Amino acid sequence: MSRKPIQLLTLTLALNALHLGCGPTEGPTADPISIADDEDAGPTPDEPTTDELLADAFTNVQLKRVAATHYMCECFPEDRQHDSSDACHQETAAPATDELRECFLDQLTDHPDGDQALYDFLVEVDALFDRRDACVDALDTSSCSRDTLDSIRACGRTADEELELVNDAAPAAVITFMDDTGALLVNSPCRDLFSN
């Protein structure tokens, strides 16, 4: 049985590669993110916590190709060298979004909260993936069309480009925090969800 490796959301993430890695060690050295003391920093009671946003971010990155793959299996299983949609779905099965998110969230229970810069970064990431989902939801996927498949992929490419811009603008300390978080999740039991 093979495993689908977990992708990491770091500022140096190769967005189009499905590989396991924690980002390069080269580059500026940053002090670890400190837990914010400012009473105004972080979420209000009605807003998501840092842990929730982290779990959402890593879940969205890991499952970002699910929509395109599902449509391809439904309509064009031959693209993945399968004779049937069922066989294609079985080969490309991904963990349920809620299951993966909850697993990530459990692993982050004792993880540092980070500061306001991290929180703002994660809010931006969450928003761009919401836009990606809305982009896909607006498409008519009730029939099979190569144009529709291309449009689904285009929604994902736009999200990749937006994520790269957010990454480029993020403080160096966010890199350190996201690398550390990625390493934690890679070595957690959540990895078992990618057994096929």
Commentary on this structure:
By secondary structure, the protein is an all-alpha fold. The chain has one domain (about 50-190). Helix content is about 50%, strand content about 0%. It has seven helices and no strands. It is globular and about 50 Å long. The model is unreliable at about 1-40 (pLDDT under 50).
Structural class by helix and strand composition: mainly alpha
End-to-end CA span: 6 Å
Overall body shape:
globular
Q: Low-confidence parts lasting 5 or more residues at pLDDT below 50?
A: 1-41
Proportion of strand residues: under 5%
Radius of gyration: 18 Å
The H-and-E topology, N to C, reads as HHHHHHH
Largest sheet descriptor: none
Overall average residue pLDDT: 81
Tell how many strands the DSSP assignment holds.
0
Name the helicity range: 40-55%
DSSP helix count? 7
Q: How many distinct folded domains?
A: 1
Strand-helix topology:
Layout: H1 50-62, H2 66-75, H3 85-91, H4 97-107, H5 116-137, H6 146-169, H7 172-186
Helix pairs in contact: 1-4, 1-5, 2-3, 5-6
In short:
The chain is mainly alpha-helical. Helix content is 52%, strand content 0%.
Task: Note the main attributes of this structure.
single chain; 196 residues; mainly alpha; 7 helices; 0% strand; disordered N terminus
